[in-house]
Inverse folding.
């Protein structure tokens, strides 16, 4: 069934307060026609997954700049699985070294964008994601 | 999963399935009809509270604090938060939830954000249906937040049992409020951000307005001063909601109110459908084209044109 | 100039302008500063018509200090070359410090990890995965002792980037000095301790604004009595800029934060001249070369004027806006990272031409990882080249009198005052923050900038133009051994066993009592530190009294 609107949760886990990117992306995605939920700073994986499930989002985008990506991405994936919500696509952005990226891709994380990525690239990525389906 | 399986899991109180079912209805999937038929018999247990008022008046914050309080007495609470879609991109930034952070890990609290997607009455298109689903799921209290763009958002009062109208000292003078049409729909009035200057003045202005508007009504809406961010006045708000509930029950108005709302909904939707049918009628469209030409050529006045159209439509029946 | 000369100039200019107007201009699509100030093609005396040399500039070391705060500026002494560092455990950072000191660095600067910045111990559940990652983990006096082991604290000046828990971390440092035999009054350094910009931009706040400001005034009061050489607040625009603000916003919000601290001190009954000289500033140096220089000059002028006229400061030292600068982290690109060396050099030049007192130059890989030693060395060398080779330090404020720079300086000043007015109307900075005003202005500017990049109205070399085909962007692996977290947690847990827990509890109780009263909170915090109460415990006790601040997002 074709969905009318793609719903995206942009979440900012970790202890750092660098929400510039998350906010700019949230706004950019809104302006590209998505329905975006942004829940603010210091979200734990549990909060993120709870929100994603209640809102029945199609995608979760995590912005991580604190270096805790190897802890947080796997934990979100684990919780999604535990709650039977593996259909939700997880992607992210932040400062993530290639070696770590590879490991996360293998775990099933979607694309990980580098800092400075154009919003239009993210939009294109998301649109392709839903064209395929 | 088939729809039957979905409904079975729904019955078992699976939150994820609840969320999915809401999506199916919101997106008007073909299963929607069956879902609505299924839940139809299960609704009516939840008490519904509507919160309306200008954008930024603190509705979401108020809901977060109120819910925290209500959790002392109720286990199951549903929240529907409406936000506007962008008229340009049709996208939306659903920002109410962020004020409700403290509820994210509360068991029994289910929050759903909905974008208006072009609806103009301050609510998302399927707000009522989603409230019904939450009701059928077993939520004891359902709170609905309108978008609050400052326009008339009277629709909310048809959807809920108690309507709370929120003002802030910045809302402007009494005339403005009167114009906004909100004084007729409120069962409870809240002046939030009462930490700011102007709250007392607003209080007295509002009091006068309400006394006039509710002259002939048995229910005299209270005005409560709150400071949502500081968790102040929330207890009183809760108390007044209970009072209003008791008033409705004691005067046998609850059922009446809900029935009226259902009939209204029926009428509204019926009229909408009728109009659709009317406009689909080839002859009607043709007569309309002819009449509009005559009106433009000043052969007929608008009134005469309408009379002529009505005659033709009737004749056509 | 006489009236006639003005008229003649005006006429000549108008004619020239007419001729030039329709000539093609195509190098860049956007002739505006990063603050969105539209730019003319050339500036003349006409643009600074009411310029008054003595009123607007004066001489170096003289009011209003536009040209610099010292008479001799860099002839007297260079700026302090201070490179920020810290990672892993206290032992790791201790080694890095010793490396830097042996290479001629003159000041130490500590970066803390996120749990520490938020006042959480390394074994806090929220700290998982972040211990020692973006800075050093300091959970107790024990860690601080290790951090400065073998570094005589009376010989270095130490800058610590710490805000929410500044009072506690500072207490750890003071006691570390005491244990080395260095009395408080000999210790030199800076704590950032600028909580307002945390609410505005960086978001490592702990308590609500009111108790936070009270703690800050406690610190100012304590320092003026006991640690007179310490800089108690480094009022920071750096993070405001990194969060996406314009230069004008950075200038306006930072100075407004500064005024707020001054007002709080005065409200407490402190004499402005006892604490104002210990306030310093911390700015960002971004890519728009002339606008940055103008920003630094305007900042000095505004601060001196307001301190003198509005707050009645009498001592010269109270009027001086001393500042540290860091080149813009957000201007670094992951693409062709070597280009960052060049960007950083220009930004550093702007800071020096703007008269900075100390400078951190970013390493080319700084935005992504803790810099390698080689990258750190290049960054330091960049400063040394500026100081020793290219001659910019010979003459003070060499751009003073430039029509363009003077115009921009006044323009930035004017725009800043416009923000001051708005914020004052809202009831001051704390009220404005609560209403989300600066946050919203910054988010708006960040979004506008992003759009300008995407529409190629602005060019970033290697990112949206001059892109290397198939460049593989390599973000070097930030290797923080997971052992770090484990070791750190172990150490903390041992400490909890070894120390006298009954004393700890008593100290924490006394702290809470003091927090509830109006006592200066520094004294009981020092006692807690001495008893080896941990950071998390001390902050936890204060949270019980003060509550916690919750942020909301403003778009
Ligand atoms: N000063 C003050 N601000 C409040 C109060 N209640 C809410 N706010 C702030 O008002 C802003 C808008 O609140 P929000 O709940 O999003 O309003 P909504 O748009 O009506 O849902 C937020 O910044 C709140 O923190 C209050 O009682 N006093
Ligand atoms: Mg809201």
């Amino acid at each position: 069934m074709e969905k009318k609107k793609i719903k995206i949760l942009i979440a900012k886990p970790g202890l750092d307060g660098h929400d510039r990117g998350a906010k700019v992306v949230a706004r950019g995605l809104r302006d590209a026609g998505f329905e975006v939920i942004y829940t603010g700073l210091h979200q734990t994986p549990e909060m993120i997954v709870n929100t994603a499930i209640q809102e029945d989002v199609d995608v979760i985008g995590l912005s991580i700049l604190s270096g805790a990506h190897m802890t947080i991405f796997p934990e979100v994936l684990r919780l999604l699985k535990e709650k039977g919500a593996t259909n939700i696509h997880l992607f992210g952005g932040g400062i993530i070294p290639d070696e770590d990226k590879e490991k996360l891709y293998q775990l099933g994380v979607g694309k990980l964008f580098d800092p400075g990525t154009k919003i239009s690239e993210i939009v294109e990525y998301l649109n392709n994601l839903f064209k395929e389906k | 999963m088939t729809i039957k399986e979905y409904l079975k899991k729904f019955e078992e109180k699976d939150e994820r399935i609840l969320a999915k079912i809401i999506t199916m209805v919101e997106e008007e999937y073909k299963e929607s009809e069956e879902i609505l038929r299924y839940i139809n018999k299960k609704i009516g247990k939840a008490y519904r509270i509507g919160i309306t008022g200008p954008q930024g008046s603190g509705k979401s914050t108020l809901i977060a604090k109120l819910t925290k309080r209500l959790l002392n007495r109720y286990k199951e609470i549903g929240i529907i938060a409406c936000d506007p879609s962008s008229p340009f991109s049709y996208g939306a930034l659903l920002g109410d939830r962020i004020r409700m952070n403290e509820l994210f890990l509360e068991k029994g609290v289910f929050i759903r954000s909905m974008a208006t997607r072009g609806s103009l009455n301050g609510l998302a298109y399927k707000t009522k249906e989603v409230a019904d689903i939450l009701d059928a799921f077993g939520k004891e209290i359902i709170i609905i937040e309108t978008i609050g763009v400052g326009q008339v958002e009277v629709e909310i009062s048809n959807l809920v049992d108690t309507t709370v109208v929120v003002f802030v000292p910045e809302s402007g003078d009494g005339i403005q409020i009167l114009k906004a049409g909100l004084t007729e729909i409120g069962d409870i009035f809240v002046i939030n951000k009462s930490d700011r200057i102007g709250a007392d003045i607003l209080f007295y202005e509002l009091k006068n307005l309400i006394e006039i508007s509710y002259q002939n009504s048995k229910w005299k809406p209270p005005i409560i001063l709150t400071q949502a961010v500081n968790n102040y006045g929330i207890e009183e708000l809760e108390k007044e909601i209970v009072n209003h509930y008791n008033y409705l029950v004691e005067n046998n108005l609850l059922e009446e109110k809900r029935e009226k709302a259902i009939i209204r909904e029926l009428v509204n939707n019926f009229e909408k459908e009728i109009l659709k049918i009317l406009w689909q009628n080839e002859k009607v469209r043709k007569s309309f084209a002819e009449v509009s030409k005559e009106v433009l050529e000043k052969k007929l006045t608008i009134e005469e044109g309408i009379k002529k159209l009505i005659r033709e439509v009737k004749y056509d029946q | 100039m006489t009236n006639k000369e003005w008229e003649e100039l005006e006429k000549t200019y108008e004619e020239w302008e007419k001729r030039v107007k329709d000539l093609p201009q195509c190098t860049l699509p956007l002739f505006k500063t990063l603050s969105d100030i539209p730019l003319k093609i050339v500036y003349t005396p006409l643009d600074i018509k009411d310029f008054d040399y003595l009123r607007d500039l004066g001489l170096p070391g003289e009011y209003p200090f536009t040209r610099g705060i010292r008479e001799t500026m860099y002839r007297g002494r260079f700026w302090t070359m201070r490179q920020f560092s810290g990672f892993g455990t206290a032992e790791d950072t201790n080694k890095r410090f010793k490396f830097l000191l042996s290479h001629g660095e003159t000041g130490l600067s500590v970066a803390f990890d996120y749990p520490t910045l938020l006042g959480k111990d390394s074994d806090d559940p929220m700290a998982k995965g972040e211990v020692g990652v973006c800075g050093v983990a300091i959970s107790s006096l024990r860690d601080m002792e290790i951090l400065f082991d073998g570094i005589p604290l009376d010989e270095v000046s130490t800058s610590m980037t710490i805000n929410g828990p500044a009072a506690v971390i500072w207490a750890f440092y003071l006691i570390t000095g005491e244990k080395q035999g260095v009395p408080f009054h000999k210790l030199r350094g800076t704590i950032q301790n600028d909580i307002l910009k945390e609410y505005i931009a960086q978001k490592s706040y702990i308590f609500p604004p009111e108790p936070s400001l009270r703690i800050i005034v406690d610190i100012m009061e304590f320092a003026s009595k006991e640690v007179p050489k310490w800089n108690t607040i480094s009022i920071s625009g750096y993070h405001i800029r990194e969060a996406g603000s314009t230069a004008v916003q950075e200038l306006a919000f930072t100075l407004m934060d500064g005024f707020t601290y001054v007002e709080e001190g005065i409200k407490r009954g402190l004499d402005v001249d006892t604490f104002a000289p210990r306030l310093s500033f911390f700015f960002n140096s971004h890519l728009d070369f002339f606008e940055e220089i103008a920003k630094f000059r305007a900042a000095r002028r505004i601060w001196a004027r307001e301190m003198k006229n509005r707050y009645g400061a009498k001592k010269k030292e109270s009027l001086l806006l001393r500042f540290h600068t860091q080149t813009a982290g957000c201007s670094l690109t992951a693409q062709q990272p070597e280009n960052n060396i060049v960007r950083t050099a220009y930004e550093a030049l702007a800071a020096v031409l703007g008269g900075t007192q100390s400078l951190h130059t970013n390493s080319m890989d700084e935005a992504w990882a803790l810099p390698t030693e080689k990258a750190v060395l290049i960054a330091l060398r960049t400063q040394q080249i500026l100081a020793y080779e290219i001659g910019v330090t010979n003459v003070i404020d060499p751009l003073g009198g430039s029509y363009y720079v003077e115009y921009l300086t006044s323009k930035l000043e004017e725009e800043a005052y416009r923000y001051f007015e708005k914020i004052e109307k809202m009831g001051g900075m704390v009220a404005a923050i609560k209403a989300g005003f600066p946050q919203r202005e910054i988010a708006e500017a960040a979004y506008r900038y992003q759009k300008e990049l995407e529409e190629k109205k602005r060019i970033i070399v290697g990112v949206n133009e001059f892109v290397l085909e198939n460049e593989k962007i390599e973000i070097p692996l930030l290797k923080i051994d997971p052992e770090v977290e484990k070791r750190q947690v172990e150490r903390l847990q041992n400490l909890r066993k070894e120390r006298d827990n009954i004393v700890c509890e008593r100290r924490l109780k006394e702290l809470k009592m003091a927090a509830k009263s109006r006592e200066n909170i520094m004294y009981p915090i020092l006692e807690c530190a001495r008893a080896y109460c941990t950071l998390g415990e001390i902050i936890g006790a204060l949270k019980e009294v003060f509550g916690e601040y919750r942020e909301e997002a403003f778009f």
